[in-house]
Structures are given as structure tokens and as C-alpha cells.
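Lab notebook, bench 4. Still working through the backlog of constructs that have no structural model yet. Next entry is a single chain of 333 residues. Request: give me the C-alpha cells for it.
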Amino acid sequence: MQAMVLEAPHRPLRLTAMAVPTPGPGQVLLRIAACGVCRTDLHVIDGELTQPKLPLVPGHEIVGRIAALGQGVTRFRLGDRIGVPWLGWSCGACRFCQSGRENLCDQARFTGYQIDGGYGDYTVADQRFCFTLPDAYSDLEAAPLLCAGLIGYRALRMAGEGERLGLYGFGAAAHIIAQVARWQGRRIFAFTSPGDAEAQDFARSLGAVWAGGSDQPPPEPLDAAIIFAPVGPLVPAALRAVERGGTVVCAGIHMSPIPSFPYDILWGERVVRSVANLTRRDGEEFLALAPKVPVRIAAVPYRLDQANAALDDLRAGRLQGAAVLVADDGKPA
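Model written out:
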């Protein structure tokens, strides 16, 4: 098989010939059809997440078909199309796992970080953490649902039920969750990099009632805000934008340092909270909901050997929607 491999942080990925992995007990072998390119991949490759296995095959928004079954696999059959998300394994025994919060397990392992991921032709995955995918989505469209969609959905849940919702950073996750929030009857206020008129137009095309730079205040107070951009100074900006009782959700796994801010912008029962990964319940709920909305995916395809170009485009903010690596011809493998 071929895979794009990270040999050390801060280096471009290298196209490498590897042996096809063998599924162990409880695992499935997937022939990969598509894998989304996520900002978390950038955090791994750029050394901001500091504990990757090396060498590493990145990628955790994986769509594929089962090519082999390990011993004891009962959830799936050969040929099934399934998705593999960021959370790839948890212990199942700790108090977090036992209470349905496996995303907080101390021993959790993550796809494309401690487990080889989807920037290749094949991968293995724990059957417990794989999802059946809605038939309404092609492989290209389904891939971004598995992180941009799932983490965005968890962040939306944590934001509460307020009508006026701010989204800071209008990329892969925000373009999905804006559609869900609109379907729920909320009004969307989109914040982009200052001067990014293209991203603001993209947000309006998806129903945002207002779109502007992150250096601008919204035209009215917000009930909640979700920060998708990994930019610490957005936290006090969002606190200033939400009214009393509002919630600011930090949706990323990594963020630059948050500057100090005066207590009065937190006072008034405002809340700042983070979102850590996802639970399987989040995945099942969101993947059932997405086709009902229906969520439409803006996906930009790249070949496997173009992974570095896709990452560069994401890093530079040149994408509207989500980048996805696809099998040679973009068709199911």
C-alpha cells in the first residue's frame, strides 16, 4: 500500500510504500476511499500536539469499505462502508468510559495521532469506534462529517439552545454546523479573519444573518458562541459578544494562549467551556441527523499524493469548506 507518512514534526509528509496492516481481534481492515484533511492534522504535523507515534500516517476522517475482519468482529460484514473518527480507542473500564464519557478516558488513543490513520490506501480500526454512514452522502461528502461534523455537533450541544449563535472561524466545521443550527431555528453570526470577504460571502450563502471580521462586534448580543479557530484572543472577544448568561465554547483540541481579560466580561453568569473529542453517542446522533437537515458538504478533492498541498491550503486559509483526500479516481475503492 501507499501512504503519506509523517516522519518528524515540521516536515512535509512523504509518500511511502508500506505493508498492508493485518486486523487484530476486534479490528476491521478498511480499504480507504476518502479521508478528510482536518486542522487537527495540522496541529500534529506542526508539532503543536506533542505526542504522536512516529512514523505516523495522519488522518482521522476516514471513509472506507471493510476488506477483512479480525477475530471477534460482529458489528460489521465484509464490504460494509463505515467511517472512522478521531477517537480510536478507550479502555472501557474507567469511570469516564463507564458513564458514557469515553472522550475523557485517560488512556484514550486517537486516530491519526497514536494510531495510524487515513492518509493511505488501507488502515485498521477498532470496530467499537466505527460508524455506519448515511447512504445520502458520497465518500467525498461523508469524510468531513467524521470530525468537522461530529466535533461541531458536540460543540453545538454544549452551546445550549440560544437563538443567536456566533461562529468564530468559518471553515469545515462551521459550514456544517451552521446548517444544523439554521435547521434548529437559530440565527447565525459568522466571524472570519478580518477582511476575508470570500469566507463571509460563503457564510451568508449558508444562511448567516451577519458575517464580518473577528475584530468586529456583532450587530446585537449573542446567546452563545463557538470558537473553531485555534486563536486564543478570540476567547475574550467572544465573551464581549455574548450577553449575560451566554456560553462560549472552545471547540478545538489546541489553541494559542488565551490572554488575560477583565473579570467583568465573564461576570453575569457567562460560561467558557471546552469540547474534548467526541463520544460514540455524538456520532450516532449526528450521522442520523445530517441527512434530515439535510447538511450539504462543500468538499474539495485532492489525490493522496497531494496531501501536502491540501494541508498548505488549509494552513493558508485558501479553502471554502473541507479538503478531502480521495482514492485514485475519486470513486469507491
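Notes after review: The longest helix spans residues 172-183. The mean pLDDT is 96. Flag for follow-up if needed.
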